[in-house]
Amino acid sequence: MITEDTIVCLCTRQNFELSHRQALIDLCQTQRVQWDTVYQIAEQHQISPLVYHNLLKFSSEGLNIPPAVLARFKKAQIRNIFIKKRTQAALEKVLALFSQKGLDVMVVKGEALSRLVYERPWYTVSHDVDLVIRVREADLSEADQREILELLDEFNHESNEFKEHIEYDFYEHHDVTMNNILAVDWPRIWAEAEKIQIKGFDVFVMTPEDMLLAAAINSCRKRFFRLKSLCDLASIIERYPNLNWPTVISKAHAYKCNTILYTALVVTQATLGCHLPDGLAANLKVNQLRVLLVRYIVNYLSRRLTLSNLFVHSENATLKRTLSWPLFLTYATYRVDLFWPKLGELYAAWRNPSPPVPG
């Protein structure tokens, strides 16, 4: 990683301790920093508001950040706060409809983390709100289906960062199951889910243990080196010091994501740092050969490539996702029993290509 990568990693954390501050000062005093690049990396990895929040703890003269770069950071922060407020208004409208129809709904991924893990919801950038509706679509009446889908589709017909986007699934979420590749136990997730209030409406959220597993799975989907996903993982572990690791490990085995969890945590530790329990690989039953392979690829990619090189753009269409070096890590992470379902997903994507996203 380059100097600018290290600066971004130091600032991608809620708990910005004295050791991180001193490391940042030392780096800026001994290295020539391209602050435009720092901003570009932070913006690309969807954590520029959090990085800016931590940079503001120094005087601009102390780090020699050009005013023009600080202005770009500030503009990105204000834009994200604005988008979050618009999204909350849209979410309130959707929750009102679900409440009226007596349907349970769960917020997952970024929206849940914004409310339960992050001190401020605008620290990281999310391009949508993810909801799971506690009903099978086939069990809804035609009238309810039409009314729900019409309302939700209001927020999804434009691909525009200033428009609200609400992604939804019925009963389970395809991102968490990786399009049904993983054996995620959604009945158990619903049974153990906790209830919170959003604008006076009851909403379900996953337990911290399931939240961690969902974040690890999402990190795998992003090929492990997207800082927002890694920040999610590190922040969950920090926010819940009494996390029930035996439950996490047991569920990781049941969901068939034990090697995914292990790899996501190894990458998080290597980039942002996080506290992990002793004997994690052994308890997750990741064999020694795979442990060595995962750690070798993570170290190799971290040394040879920049965070910009490691970033992978998301694509809705499976077969349009670009080939990249982190793809080797992704496939090194898959258990043997996941390859056949993965091939089935690729075949289905080839036979039924996704329609273009409206612009």
Description:
With 359 residues, this protein is mainly alpha-helical. It has a domain of 129 residues. Helices cover 58% and strands 7% of the residues. The strands form two sheets. A three-stranded mixed β-sheet has the order 1-2-3. Helix 4 packs across helix 6. The chain is globular and about 65 Å long. The relative contact order is 0.10.
Topology at a glance:
Elements: H1 3-11, H2 18-30, H3 35-44, H4 48-55, H5 60-63, H6 67-101, E1 105-108, H7 110-116, E2 129-133, H8 142-153, E3 166-170, H9 174-177, H10 186-192, E4 194-198, E5 201-205, H11 208-221, H12 227-239, H13 245-254, H14 258-271, H15 280-283, H16 288-304, H17 307-310, H18 326-333, H19 336-351
Parallel strand pairs: 2-3
Antiparallel strand pairs: 1-2, 4-5
Helix pairs in contact: 1-2, 1-3, 3-6, 4-6, 6-8, 11-12, 11-13, 11-14, 12-14, 14-16, 16-18
